[in-house]
């Protein structure tokens, strides 16, 4: 029996299975599909949110690498860690487009579905952008963040961009990142449990 070349849906299912099995026992971990970042300019195929945001970009053998360079640039503004999950056909070419801190998972077809083999472990992203991160917060969460730090005076009724500017000018990127992670987890939980 010949193994079928896995498509995006097969790979996503195998990846989610792997991520949920390694995340068992961590009640603060959520796995999100299609996380929109950079004001919806790009979507992270699968994101794991716990003490960090780890994004996974899937490139099956049926995909093209046309958008990968721009995806890498935008993912690098927001994600703490990133991993490319790629089929054998694109693996070497895709790996050459990635910064060293990106992880690599090679997708190999098997009779039991896609097998994901780690080639390189993801490292900490050295170049997150505070503004791109804060734009993941909804308006009320942005105001609440400023409120918690006593910085909400004079901006409560201002447009989002002014509120985001105040956050970026006043708070450390790690404080912003922690607020974004908490927001994404809360949003995921409220979506799952209406």
Please describe what this structure looks like.
This protein has helices at 8-22, 68-78, 91-96, 130-134, 139-148, 160-170, 173-192; strands at 30-37, 42-49, 53-59, 81-87, 103-108, 115-120. With 194 residues, the protein is α/β, with parallel strands linked by helices. Strands 1-2-3-4-5-6 form a six-stranded mixed β-sheet. It is elongated and about 60 Å long. The model has no long low-confidence stretch (mean pLDDT 89).
Write the layout of secondary structure elements.
Blueprint: H1 8-22, E1 30-37, E2 42-49, E3 53-59, H2 68-78, E4 81-87, H3 91-96, E5 103-108, E6 115-120, H4 130-134, H5 139-148, H6 160-170, H7 173-192
Parallel strand pairs: 3-4, 4-5
Antiparallel strand pairs: 1-2, 2-3, 5-6
Helix pairs in contact: 5-6
Strand content: 15-25%
Bulk shape: elongated
Q: How many runs of DSSP E, i.e. beta strands?
A: 6
Oligomer: single chain
Helix count from the secondary structure assignment: 7
Percent of residues in helical segments?
40-55%
Helix-strand category: alpha/beta
Q: Strand order, biggest sheet? A: 1-2-3-4-5-6
Largest sheet: 6 strands, mixed
Question: Could you state the order of secondary-structure elements as H and E?
Answer: HEEEHEHEEHHHH
Radius of gyration: 18 Å
Distance between the termini: 44 Å
Mean pLDDT score, rounded? 89
Could you list the spans in which at least 5 consecutive residues all have pLDDT below 50? none
């Amino acid at each position: 029996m010949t193994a079928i070349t896995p498509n995006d849906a097969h790979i996503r299912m195998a990846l989610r299975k792997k991520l949920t099995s390694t995340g068992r026992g961590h009640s603060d971990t959520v796995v999100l599909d299609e996380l929109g970042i950079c004001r919806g300019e790009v979507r992270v195929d699968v994101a794991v949110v716990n003490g960090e945001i780890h994004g996974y970009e899937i490139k099956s053998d049926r995909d093209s690498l046309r958008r990968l360079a721009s995806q890498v640039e935008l993912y690098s503004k927001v994600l703490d860690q990133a991993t490319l999950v790629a089929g054998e056909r694109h693996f070497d070419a895709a790996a050459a487009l990635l910064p060293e801190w990106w992880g690599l998972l090679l997708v190999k077809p098997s009779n039991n579905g896609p097998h994901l083999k780690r080639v390189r472990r993801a490292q900490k992203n050295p170049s997150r952008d505070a503004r791109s991160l804060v734009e993941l917060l909804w308006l009320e969460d942005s105001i609440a963040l400023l409120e918690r730090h006593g910085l909400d005076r004079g901006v409560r009724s201002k447009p989002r961009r002014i509120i985001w500017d105040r956050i970026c000018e006043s708070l450390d990127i790690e404080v912003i990142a922690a607020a974004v992670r908490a927001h994404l987890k809360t949003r995921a939980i409220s979506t799952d449990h209406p």
